[in-house]
Amino acid sequence: MFDYTVMTSTETWITKGTKPPASTTVASPEPTGGLGREWLFPATAVKPFPACRFTHAAIELTAQVAAETETRRLPEGIAVRVHPSGYDIIGRPSPNKRHPETIVDAQFSMYYQVAAAWLYGMEVGWGAYDSDKMNSRQVADLCDRVEVIVDESLGQEFEVRMTFSGLDGGVSREEGMVYPLGEDERPFSRERVREKFRGLVRNVYDGARAESILNAVDKLTEESGSPTELIKLL
């Protein structure tokens, strides 16, 4: 526990916290090392789903198991084991996570994301937040069958282990994933990035306009590329 002083132009007070306040110093001995030569962007994760990153591995696994279940009947239960760092963000069973009523709450609800992935797959995109899905009794029913458990043994923060019980024939199935799609360990293909863009702008631009924007972005690395032309398309 740290005690530190917070000062403003009008008052000073002491506060306590588990972490020290933000520092203006740089710990690295070479803060400018590689500047202008190394790009950090390629190592930045790309999110395939419009939801909190802590839910992504579970979305993938749930959609996969659902697609391989012949009857597509709802499982009796789905247990999701998560890293401790993510539990309070997406797993603590508060009412707004169990049955979210807003898009933001749904984005940060493991219960909702698992239910939506089972019923609608992992390619549903922003359609997961359509009112018919947010208000679906079937989604709500499945949310109640999801349990989120802290697992101290998980080594990676986005790692999950899942148990699906009561599948076809009453069988159970266990699955796990360490790195969700889009992490540096599981790169996102260029075409999938383009597909994500198309999905995000579908309600804003027609197909021809979207393709023109993509082409303009591609040309930025060429001599004929023009940021001005790209901006005109947006």
UniProtKB/TrEMBL annotation:
<dbReference type="InterPro" id="IPR042188">
    <property type="entry name" value="MmgE/PrpD_sf_2"/>
</dbReference>
<dbReference type="InterPro" id="IPR036148">
    <property type="entry name" value="MmgE/PrpD_sf"/>
</dbReference>
<dbReference type="InterPro" id="IPR005656">
    <property type="entry name" value="MmgE_PrpD"/>
</dbReference>
<dbReference type="InterPro" id="IPR045337">
    <property type="entry name" value="MmgE_PrpD_C"/>
</dbReference>
<dbReference type="GO" id="GO:0016829">
    <property type="term" value="F:lyase activity"/>
</dbReference>
<feature type="domain" description="MmgE/PrpD C-terminal">
    <location>
        <begin position="49"/>
        <end position="220"/>
    </location>
</feature>
<dbReference type="Pfam" id="PF19305">
    <property type="entry name" value="MmgE_PrpD_C"/>
</dbReference>
<protein>
    <recommendedName>
        <fullName>MmgE/PrpD C-terminal domain-containing protein</fullName>
    </recommendedName>
</protein>
